[in-house]
TrEMBL record:
SUPFAM superfamilies, per the entry: UBC-like (SSF54495)
Described purpose of this protein according to its UniProt entry: Accepts the ubiquitin-like protein NEDD8/RUB1 from the ECR1-AXR1 E1 complex and catalyzes its covalent attachment to other proteins.
Domain of life: Eukaryota
Pathway assigned in UniProt: Protein modification; protein neddylation
The protein's name in its UniProt record: NEDD8-conjugating enzyme
Organism encoding this protein: Musa troglodytarum
InterPro entries: Ub_conjugating_enzyme, UBC, UBQ-conjugating_AS, UBQ-conjugating_enzyme/RWD
Family membership noted in the UniProt record: Belongs to the ubiquitin-conjugating enzyme family.
Record key words, sorted: ATP-binding, Nucleotide-binding, Transferase, Ubl conjugation pathway
Domain UBC core, first and last residues per copy: 101-246
Molecular function terms, GO-annotated: ATP binding; NEDD8 transferase activity
Active site, per annotation: 184
Length: 255
């Protein structure tokens, strides 16, 4: 006689909320055979703590090993994600884009930014494109006080194992930034480490404007003036950010 619904319910509760599965009677009733059958036919049940197996009208509580549950849960999440993507696509929405490990790390870095009020981050392509963004900074001290300087960031999907590529959009008279916008900052080159983040890079850029470094120049003329005649360097910087010529080179106003 088959077990009643109440009997199944009581046994299921006793086994920690397990699930009923009916084992075919024609097979030899051994734990090995039961597990082989469950693995083939009831994979979706393996995320349970216990399976109640009905064999020839008798109930057997079979505990599910933790290893099986872990693998089953991971598989279950993947199936749910795939179904969610398929449902979104069938509704006419754009396919769900999977984020790379670099994008996930970048998302974390950006969410944890702690910037001064004079520094602003923006996403010209929208926040769906985290790999390309811009930073505007306005130094509140030093030679470049009062100027506004814009930088583009391009981040590789292999971030943080590669540093971001940073360029200055603002033409600036600076020993560590050349006229093409290339930036000389050690943590963007040989001193980059995966433990560094976007916040570190931005503060490195701010430091370039408060403490320009004539020892590691890209603009050698500006570096020589800073080293030999700091007063003239200050005059040149003020002229450049106000909009004017320094020697034969014109700098647009950036105040």
């Amino acid at each position: 006689m088959p077990p009643t619904a109440r009997t199944l319910s009581l046994v299921t509760q006793h086994c920690g909320g397990g699930v009923i599965a009916a084992f075919p009677c024609q097979k030899p009733v051994t734990i090995a055979n039961i597990w082989h059958w469950v693995a083939l036919n009831c994979k979706f049940l393996l995320c349970c703590s216990c399976i109640v197996v009905a064999v020839c009208h008798h109930l057997f509580a079979v505990p599910v090993p933790v290893a099986f549950r872990s693998r089953a849960m991971i598989k279950l999440f993947k199936i749910k994600d795939q179904k969610r993507e398929d449902a979104a696509n069938s509704n006419g929405r754009a396919p769900v884009k999977k984020q790379s490990a670099g994008e996930l790390r970048l998302h974390k870095d950006i969410s944890e930014l702690n910037l001064p009020k004079s520094t602003i981050i923006s996403f010209p392509n929208g926040k769906d494109d985290l790999l390309n963004f811009e930073i505007s900074l306005r130094p509140d001290e030093g030679y470049y006080q009062g100027g506004t300087f814009h930088f583009t960031f391009h981040v590789s999907p292999s971030y943080p194992h590669e540093p971001p590529k940073v360029k200055c959009k603002t033409k600036v008279y600076h020993p560590n930034i050349d006229l093409e916008g290339n930036v000389c900052l050690n943590i963007l080159r040989e001193d980059w480490k995966p433990v560094l983040n976007i916040n570190t890079v931005i503060y490195g850029l701010i430091l370039l404007f408060t403490q320009p470094n004539e020892e590691d120049p890209l603009n050698h003329d500006a570096a020589a003036v800073l080293r030999d005649n700091p007063k003239l360097f200050e005059t040149n910087v003020r002229r450049a950010i106000a909009g004017g010529y320094v020697g034969q080179i014109y700098f647009p106003r950036c105040m």
